[in-house]
Amino acid sequence: MRYVSTRDAGLRLSGAEAIVRGLSREGGLFLPERIPQLSREDLQRLSALPYDRRAAWVMSQYLEEFSLEELEDYTRKAYCAAGKFDAVTAAPVVKLPGDLSVLELWHGPTSAFKDMALQVLPYLLTASLKKTGEDKQVLILAATSGDTGKAAMEGFRDVPQTKILVFYPENGVSEVQKLQMQTQEGKNVGVCAVKGNFDDAQTGVKQLFSDAALRERLEGRSVFLSSANSINWGRVLPQIAYYISAYCDMAASGAVSLGEPIQVCVPTGNFGNILAAYYAKEMGLPVGRLICASNSNNVLTEFIRTGVYDRNRRFFSTSSPSMDILISSNLERLLFLLTGSDREVRTYMESLKQTGRYAVSEAVLKKLQSQFSAWDCDDKKTLDAIGRVWTEDGYLLDTHTAVGYHAAQECRRQTGDRSPMLLVSTASPFKFSDSVLKALGAEPAAKGLDGLEQLAKMTKIPAPAPLAQLRGKPVRFTGAVEKTEMEAAVMEMLA
Ligand SMILES: *Cc1c(COP(=O)(O)O)cnc(C)c1O
User: Distance from the CA of 415 to the center of ligand 1, in angstroms?
Assistant: First the structure.
């Protein structure tokens, strides 16, 4: 299986090369040149396996130069090692009333779904360095809307031949998220706040990647850059697995009969998670509608409904900060898959860069709408959903998952489609205690960790251990830079 770039379909790379590089030099994203197929027999066979072996098999379909045994070794270490995931399986499916299954992806060390990929990526990347004969040091840059940064550092801490530097929007993450990053341990990690929002941080990181002068300076020090954001294929790939796994679990529990289509609803920001769902569907997983759920930063809702992507709009800081994003990087991969044309993708991306906006052709819009539906949800409705589901079903949603819950309900109400629904739950409610407490009608006593304890007391649900243990951890990183100073932060990290 070879990999191409969304902006240069003539490129041919191996999967290992795509993972090592992260982003293509002309600014495009790597993706496999074709999508492997999943048969009903495959599904049946996978159903009998534990999560880590399901994940390894799915990844092996995309990575020819890795043996199944190698991948099984990585996924066993990532998902089964003691103290990593606090549930019986890494990605459990919980059934709620009304034909709703919730895929809980936050049982990992940082309590958000990013762990699903970022616990495996270090193994994939380290092995890819070996396979490609790369002996320079990798500096991994990550822009984070709150969850990627922590999960990436937790995955890469003290991994040989790597350093990792994380940029987060200074006022754009929750208290718990900030504390998680500022107290990160490890000799090879760095954290830096950026005076701006997530889009500023992500654009800054992308600029560093395409900066030829910087690349040369780094080369002089035997260092090159790679990415832990979902622009790296190594982030998207492990995520495809949990959709397939969830379907197996739903079939086993009788929530769906094997072969019957389900709807999948994904709270979306950078479009990485829902892109993985699209891949699973294209592999042949019985999925009908893919529901893209957004908060008030509803640029994707509008795009899927009208075909116009327009980032020239007000930016909202919402109660679901990990989705406060106006430039969804992974949409570029979808555009390539829908158009099959690097030229067309380049035109759209050039227009986005110049004017902040592009409009896709009628043909693309039609294809898009045959696969995706979109709903958005403001903060009030988000909190309403949390309160209602807690009162009626005794189940505690985090703010991001609540956005998805609202979208799933709206979709059902407006389309009348009653097929089984899989709602992707992306974070533990304890990461966003203050908002969740408000939703339950409580007055959050204080900020951060006090809220965590208050929520645990009120709901009688214990807070995830890694979050509870943040109390008393020394703060290591307090630096903040202007958008224009990110390169200096990189050089300082290497000094
Ligand atoms: C990152 C994140 C999202 C958005 O996922 P994308 O892959 O960027 O669309 C949603 N919820 C939470 C909790 C996240 O951390």
Answer: 25
